[in-house]
Design brief:
Shape: extended
Organism: Aspergillus luchuensis (strain CBS 106.47)
Helix content: 10-25%
Family: Belongs to the universal ribosomal protein uL15 family.
Radius of gyration: 40 Å
Structural class: alpha/beta
CATH architecture of the domain at 116-297: Ribosomal Protein L15, Chain: K, domain 2
GO cellular component, one term: mitochondrial large ribosomal subunit
Distance between the termini: 101 Å
CATH class of the domain at 116-297: Alpha Beta
Domain Large ribosomal subunit protein uL15/eL18: 117-203
Strand content: 5-15%
InterPro entries: Ribosomal_uL15 (IPR030878), Ribosomal_uL15/eL18 (IPR021131), Ribosomal_uL15/eL18_sf (IPR036227), Ribosomal_uL15_bac-type (IPR005749)
C-alpha cells in the first residue's frame, strides 16, 4: 500500500496586520493564512476515475444476501442433484440413457457447404420477364442482381424443378424455351440433362465466400481463371468475340479486374470439379482413361495398366 500522510494539527499563521479587515479575511478565508511554501491538492478527481466503457463487466456475486438477487441458494434452487453437483448432458436419473434406447438422431456434416438453390422454372420465369438475358452467360452475379436468388451464401446449386420425367425418372421435356449457358457451384443430374437438351451448357465452378463478394463488386471475373482454357468443354464461355481464347491475363487487363479467381485446393473439391459427369471446369485436365479421383484409379485405367494376362508355362520335367 502507498505510504499514508501524517496528519498534523493545523497551525494558523499570525496575520501580519492587526486590523479588523485582515482578521475577518483570515477567518473567512483560511487558505489565505497558509504559508506560501505549502501546496494544496484537490482529491475530488479520484472519485470520478473509471474504466473505459465496456472494459469491465461486473461479475455476479453469489451468496451475498437476499438483496443481491443471488443469495441463499445462489440461483441453484432447492435440493436435488442439480444443486448439489453437476449433471452430465443427457443424464436420465440413472436409468438407460435416451441415446441408448432410441439411438442417435441426425449428425453434423463438417464437409457440407451452404448453397443457394435455384430451379430451372424460376430461371425461365425471370427470362420471360426480361430480368435475365439468356444470350449472355448466367453467373452468380446475374442471379443475385436480378433477385433470382436472395442470398449468394457459399455458391449456387442448379436444380431441375419443372422438368417432365418418364416412368424411369429420365428427363423427357425441358422447361427451358431457349438455350442458356450457366455457371454455378453445383448442379443436379436432371438439371444438367434439361439444359443440354435445350441446346445450352452447364459448367460447375469453384467459389469461396470472399470470391463471391468480390465478384458482386466487379473486382473479380465470375468464371475466367488460370485453369480455365478453351479445352474445358465450354467453348461458348471460354472464347472471346474475336475468336481468341480468353486467358486470365487478357481478361484482367481489358476489364480492369484487381483479383484473381481462386481454384480449389482441397482434394474433395478438386475431384468434384475434375468429374465430367458434374460438368466440372477442371475436367479437361483428365488424361485418356483417367478418372477424376486423385487417389483411386478407375476400372478402365486399372485394366489398361494391367495389360494382357500371360499364361504361366510349366517345364516338362516338373513333378507337381
Amino acid at each position: 500500500m502507498p505510504p499514508r500522510l501524517q496528519l498534523l494539527p493545523f497551525q494558523w499563521q499570525r496575520p501580519m496586520a492587526t486590523t479588523t479587515t485582515n482578521l475577518l479575511s483570515a477567518f473567512l478565508l483560511p487558505q489565505a493564512a497558509i504559508p506560501i511554501h505549502q501546496q494544496s491538492r484537490n482529491a475530488h478527481i479520484l472519485a470520478s476515475l473509471s474504466d473505459t466503457q465496456g472494459a469491465y463487466n461486473k461479475r455476479i456475486r453469489r451468496g451475498r444476501g437476499p438483496a443481491s438477487g443471488k443469495g441463499k441458494t445462489s440461483g441453484r434452487g432447492h435440493k436435488g442433484q442439480k444443486q448439489h453437483g453437476k449433471v452430465p448432458a443427457g443424464f436420465n436419473g440413472g436409468q438407460t440413457p435416451e441415446i441408448v434406447v432410441h439411438g442417435e438422431r441426425g449428425f453434423n456434416n463438417v464437409h457440407s457447404i451452404d448453397l443457394a438453390p435455384v430451379n430451372l422454372d424460376r430461371i425461365q420465369s425471370w427470362i420471360d420477364q426480361g430480368r435475365i438475358d439468356p444470350t449472355r452467360p448466367i453467373t452468380v452475379r446475374e442471379l443475385a442482381q436480378s433477385r433470382c436468388i436472395h442470398q449468394t451464401k457459399e455458391g449456387v446449386k442448379l436444380l431441375g424443378r419443372g422438368v417432365e420425367k418418364d416412368d424411369h425418372e429420365v428427363p423427357v421435356d425441358s422447361v427451358l424455351k431457349q438455350p442458356i449457358h450457366i455457371v454455378v457451384s453445383r448442379a443436379s443430374a436432371p438439371a444438367i440433362a434439361a439444359v443440354e437438351a435445350a441446346g445450352g451448357s452447364v459448367t460447375t465452378r469453384f467459389y469461396t465466400k470472399s470470391a463471391i463478394a468480390r465478384i458482386m463488386k466487379r473486382e473479380m471475373h465470375p468464371f475466367v481463371s488460370l485453369a480455365w482454357t478453351k479445352e474445358s468443354g465450354s467453348e461458348a464461355l471460354a472464347v472471346a468475340e474475336d475468336g481468341e481464347p480468353l486467358t486470365e491475363s487478357k481478361v484482367m487487363k481489358e476489364m480492369g479486374y484487381s483479383y484473381r479467381l481462386p481454384d480449389p485446393t482441397k482434394r474433395r473439391d478438386i475431384e468434384y470439379y475434375r468429374d465430367p459427369a458434374h460438368r466440372g471446369y477442371l475436367s479437361h485436365l483428365l488424361k485418356p482413361m483417367e478418372g477424376p479421383s486423385l487417389f483411386f484409379r478407375s476400372p478402365v485405367e486399372r485394366k489398361s495398366a494391367a495389360g494382357v494376362k500371360k499364361e504361366k508355362v510349366l517345364p516338362e520335367n516338373r513333378l507337381w
